[in-house]
Amino acid sequence: MTDLSTLTTMATLATTSAAICYLIAIVQLLMATRSNARLQQTQAFPVWGLAGAVLHLLTIAINTIEHQGLSSSLFDALSITAFIIMSMGLIAQTRYTLRAMLIPAFIIAIICLILANSYSHHTPILAKSSGMLTHILSSIIAYSLLSLATLLALTLQLMERGLKDHREINWLRQLPPLQTMENLLFQLITIGWLILTAAIISGGIFIDDLFAQHLAHKTLFTSVSWLLYGLLLIGRRNYGWRGTTAFKLAIAAFIALLLAYFGSKFVLEILLKSY
Predict the structure, then answer these.
(1) 133 contact partners, CB below 8 Å, separation of at least 6
(2) How far is it, in rounded angstroms, from Cα 169 to Cα 159?
(3) What is d(CA 1, CA 132) in angstroms, rounded to the nearest whole number?
(4) What CA–CA distance (Å, rounded) separates 174 from 164?
(5) Phi, psi of 124 (to 5 degrees)
(6) Residue ranges, the chain, pLDDT below 70
(7) How many whole angstroms separate alpha carbon 151 and alpha carbon 146?
(8) Are the beta carbons of 189 and 233 closer than 8 angstroms?
(9) pLDDT tens digits, residue range 220-256?
(10) How distant, in Å, are the alpha carbons of 230, 235, 245, 246 from that of 154?
């Protein structure tokens, strides 16, 4: 059996290799975005980013084997979420030319990887039943999808502002038209909201007390986020909400979700341990 020190070394090597691959992908994309020409979808696919995602998955797998299960600690959870976001972004890239939007995603993935490898402590994910496992997985997937949607909303705000100010920004030229991007945004939000709904329902069924002291704020902020996303989708369907109004509401909903998922972890694992 592989001893723990060997697994730790392997995890460090995989983390370093993944970060290097992501960094190469960033440099290549930055160089490409300096061009005024729109590249074809096949030319734009970040192969080094794909290599980084594979190594990122390997890092998570090694840590899981080392600690005999996935971890729910702050930095481990961020690393897992970053991997899912990267995977979804790369899958979307096969249909849409989103390479410019992937640059900040690669940067976030590098930061999450390094933090997880350097400062994380293992906190096992406790799934006592298949229903509880469904709640945990649907929560992670919903958060990842809505994170990607938020990154898209921020990009759309920059695109819209550039059009209003009549400014040409090279890296924005590499993205699909505004209407296509906006349609993709609402597709992501719709799917993410539906999965978040499943997470809330399964949590209500399989968690004994959603308003226990350590879960109260998570339940509150998740509910606020779910309502805001629902309001946005209703506004889009019935009143044609789009542009700045839609983007700002999407970002506000995500901030509530961010506080729900990582707020308590940050307080318990970072702030309180500092004192």
Answers:
(1) 127
(2) 9
(3) 31
(4) 18
(5) -60, 140
(6) 1-2, 34-44, 120, 126-128, 166-172, 208-215, 264-275
(7) 9
(8) yes
(9) 899 999 999 999 999 999 988 888 889 999 999 999 9
(10) 19, 19, 12, 11
Annotated domain spans of the chain:
1-125, 128-275
Dist. CA 143–CA 196, nearest whole Å = 8
Q: Token digits for 87?
A: 């995977």
125-137: pLDDT as tens digits: 766 677 788 888 8
CA angle 15, 20, 23 (to 5 degrees): 125
Burial of 169 per CB tally in 10 Å (0-12, 13-18, 19+): middle
Collect all residues with Cβ–Cβ distance below 8 Å to 177 and sequence separation of at least 6: none
